[in-house]
Design brief:
Blueprint: E1 6-17, E2 21-32, E3 35-40, H1 47-54, E4 62-67, E5 70-71, H2 76-79, E6 83-86, H3 98-108, H4 113-126, H5 142-155, E7 160-164, H6 172-187, E8 191-196, H7 199-205, E9 208-213, E10 216-221, H8 223-229, E11 234-239, E12 253-255, E13 258-263, H9 268-280, E14 284-287
Parallel strand pairs: 3-8, 3-9, 6-7, 7-8
Antiparallel strand pairs: 1-2, 1-4, 4-5, 9-10, 11-13, 11-14, 12-13
């Protein structure tokens, strides 16, 4: 691929907090233009730190990163108008309405009143929120609130969308609805970088995946490539209201709505099967 085919390129990106904790450890990554790229890893693996560096919100300790061809340290002002971010801590609350959030964000991005009005209506319609555009935030469901956040970045028409754990805290039905909207954004030409610790989310959404562990990227590729390369023990933590389906796996240890399954090497087909069954049974799968 030519350099212009990558929206993000990093070389040796390292981030050390407080002089001791190494959140990222010499991360090299190339993310192609178009589609959905998923950064998969457990909590504390370094996903959010990476996203914040790419979003020009955090300075790396060392290394180099470019976004859309611009250096994150030297050319942040060129990057910011071209990206939009939904941080993990973003919340919709209070008495503001979906229209208030989306329209205000469009205006903050520099749109005129007429352009912001049209773009806000279009974004809310695409996320099936136009009929509730005048409802206050405290009356919205969790899934609707997340869709309002996605509508806000959609109205920007940014080239690169950064979503940090977008489905965290949602029920299974709302998660699937949100996934369909995110896939729809990708289909319209946006490039999406998404972080998650849910394997099933990565399986459904991602065109390409990087798995990060303790600040290091340990594997890259699409889902099939990653399963084919996996030659070590895999630990899956599964949660849900009904985990009876996991009894088919001898190594399953079920307690209080949570099951841990350990798989040895060369069990890629079983991993794929577990992911399918988890989706069918409204269970969540976390890579450990």
């Amino acid at each position: 691929m030519d350099a212009m085919d990558y929206v993000i390129e990093t070389e040796g990106i390292t981030k050390i907090y407080g002089g001791k904790k190494k959140a990222l450890d010499s991360v090299d990554m190339k993310i192609p233009r178009g589609g959905i790229f998923c950064l998969l890893g457990r909590n504390g693996a370094g996903k959010t730190t990476f996203l914040r560096i790419i979003g020009t919100q955090l300075e790396p300790t060392s290394g180099r990163a470019t976004v859309l061809g611009y250096d994150v340290m030297k050319e942040a002002d060129e990057i910011r108008p071209r990206i939009a971010v939904v941080p993990q801590e973003a919340k919709i609350w209070g008495f503001a309405t979906p229209w208030d959030y989306v329209y205000s964000y469009a205006r903050l991005r520099g749109m005129s009143d007429s352009d912001a009005t049209q773009a806000s209506a279009d974004a809310l319609k695409r996320l099936d929120l136009y009929d509730v555009k005048d409802k206050v935030g405290i009356e919205l469901s969790g899934g609707m609130k997340q869709r309002v956040l996605v509508s806000m970045i959609l109205v920007s028409d940014a080239e690169l969308l950064l979503l940090d754990e977008p489905s965290i805290g949602l029920d299974p039905v709302s998660r699937r609805q949100l996934w369909s909207y995110i896939k729809g954004l990708s289909a319209t030409g946006h490039t999406i970088l998404l972080t998650t610790h849910y394997m099933d989310e990565a399986e459904v959404l991602a065109d390409n995946i990087s798995i990060i562990h303790e600040g290091k990227v340990i594997v890259n590729g699409n889902l099939q490539q990653i399963l084919e390369r996996n030659n070590s023990k895999t630990i899956l933590e599964i949660t849900g209201n009904d985990l009876t389906w996991t009894r088919a796996y001898n190594d399953a240890d079920s307690k209080n709505g949570r099951t841990t399954i350990e798989l040895e090497e060369e069990e890629d087909e079983i991993v794929a099967e577990i992911l399918r069954k988890a989706r069918q049974n409204n269970s969540k799968v976390v890579f450990r």
